[in-house]
Each structure stands twice: as C-alpha cells, then as structure tokens.
Amino acid sequence: MDQLSENELHQLAMNTVGASLEEQGFEFLAVNSTPKKDPQFVCTKDKILRFVIVRHVRYPNNPKDFDKALMDQVKEHAKKFKAKAYFAGVGFAHAEDYSKSLSKNEPYATNFTGLQEV
C-alpha cells in the first residue's frame, strides 16, 4: 500500500485551496506550488491584493494552527505591497478510519474551512 508523500499532500492542499479561491472569484496573479516557498498564491479580489500561505496537516493535527512567527513575517512582507496575508490550512485523514495512514487509491477526508486572515 503506497502512502501519500508530503509533496502529494501539499499538491492536494494546493488544489483544494485553489479551487476554493477560484470559486470565490479570486484572480490569480502568481501561483507557487513549491512547499514552504511562500506565498503559494498571490491573488486579487475587489482590488485587494492577497498573499495566501498553504499548509497541510494529517489528522489529528488541527489545520487552523499555524506558525505565528512565519505568518508575522508574511504579514510584514504583505504590508510592503499593501496586501493582506492569509493562512489556508488543510487537514487530511483516511476517510473510513482516521487512525489509518493516508494511502494512494483509498478515500481521504479533507478539512478546509477557508482562509484565515492574519
């Protein structure tokens, strides 16, 4: 049974957040899908520039928890561009049994409740 790699989980998180942003009418200016190369999304909506940091976690970790020091850095960087900074945490778990590892070709549950402004 092949387990999902950290890179594969990051890509799933990127797809989840990207689809949400697109659905909400955001315009993408730049997308960086490299893990921990921040921000992952630079986008705009209603003439407001936004920097979005995407991180994934595995159950039982809380996808809303973020590295405050990192987000403070991103927030300061965003200010230079008159932009807002957001955190997008995405949680993953095995869909049928949260205690199982995440593996390819098996269902998984996604926990994403939207952007958190920092």
Beta strand count? 6
CATH class categorisation: Alpha Beta
Would you give the CATH topology?
Trna Endonuclease, Chain: A, domain 1
How big is the Rg?
A: 15 Å
SS summary, helix count: 2
Category from helices, strands and their pairing: alpha+beta
Number of domains: 1
The 3D shape can be described as elongated
Strand content: 25-35%
Helix content: 25-40%
Mean pLDDT: 95
- The N- and C-terminal alpha carbons lie at a distance of 39 Å
Ranges where pLDDT stays below 50 over 5 or more residues in a row are: none
CATH architecture: 3-Layer(aba) Sandwich
Structure description:
The protein is α+β, with helices and mostly antiparallel strands and 118 residues long. The protein has one domain: 3-Layer(aba) Sandwich (Trna Endonuclease, Chain: A, domain 1), CATH 3.40.1350.10. It is built from 2 helices and 6 strands; from the N terminus they run αβββαβββ. Strands 1, 2, 3, 4, 5 and 6 form a 6-stranded mixed beta sheet that branches. A hairpin with a 2-residue loop joins strand 2 and strand 3 (48-58).
What descriptors fit this protein?
single chain; 118 residues; alpha+beta; Trna Endonuclease, Chain: A, domain 1; 6-stranded mixed sheet; 2 helices; 6 strands; 32% strand; elongated
List the helices and strands and how they pair.
Elements: H1 6-23, E1 27-31, E2 41-45, E3 48-58, H2 68-80, E4 84-94, E5 108-111, E6 116-117
Parallel strand pairs: 3-4
Antiparallel strand pairs: 1-2, 2-3, 4-5, 4-6
